[in-house]
Write a structure and sequence with these properties.
205 residues; 0% strand; elongated; 62% helix; 12 helices; Leucine-rich Repeat Variant
Length: 205
């Protein structure tokens, strides 16, 4: 299908079946899949079993787009498949799986998703830990403070930065105390992060 033909139907509700079929197909049209995902979201596509086989497709590209689609339509029936993709051999697919789960949280604590994220933030790849911490930060809920405090000692600098940014938003009054509690931390990178934020807080006072 020519680019002009497909893009021309993006805003038409009757085009949903065509858009579904086109999602994740090999194409030389830059950004087409992103447009399709956006169109399906605007059209309030209800999702459904048609996408499930794509979550197990041999192509990482198709698995990745299927992950994004499930997050957009918030298809709870597909959650077990999304959770299984957290251990996908492809790094991008794992990242898309986390981002899809974030959609189910709706920027607030979730008894469905958070127990999964608790395990990820305590011992998964650095970019996964960052994504989970950012999802906690978006909730801006004191409930997550213990996870932010733990992440102050994370070996990955972005995790530490997200943790401090989160504490600044959720519990700014006690941020200095949290940083002071890190005085005995031996990891030099952690100390540099803490020192930089202490300097920032001192300038703000």
């Amino acid at each position: 299908m020519e680019a002009c033909e497909l893009v021309g139907i993006l805003g038409d509700p009757v085009s949903i079946p065509v858009l579904r079929k086109a999602l994740g197909r090999d194409s030389n049209i830059d950004g087409l899949d992103v447009e399709i995902l956006g169109a399906l979201e605007e059209l309030h596509d209800p999702g459904g079993p048609w996408i499930y086989p794509m979550l197990n497709d041999p192509s990482p590209k198709r698995r990745g787009f299927a992950c994004q689609y499930v997050g957009i339509v918030r298809d709870h029936q597909a959650l077990p498949l999304i959770i299984s993709l957290l251990d996908d051999p492809d790094e991008d697919v794992r990242r898309f799986a986390v981002n899809s789960l974030v959609k189910f949280k709706d920027d607030k604590p979730s008894t469905l998703v958070d127990p999964i994220f608790y395990k990820l933030v305590m011992g998964h790849e650095s970019h996964i830990r960052v994504a989970v911490l950012r999802s906690f930060m978006q909730c801006c809920d004191p409930f997550y403070i213990p996870f932010f405090i733990t992440a102050l000692r994370d070996p990955y600098y972005l995790c530490r930065s997200v943790a401090i940014d989160s504490l600044k938003e959720v519990d700014f009054v006690n941020l200095g105390r949290y940083l002071d509690s890190m005085a005995g931390e031996s990891h030099s990178d952690v100390q540099r992060t803490i020192s930089a934020w202490r300097d920032f807080l001192h300038r703000q006072s």
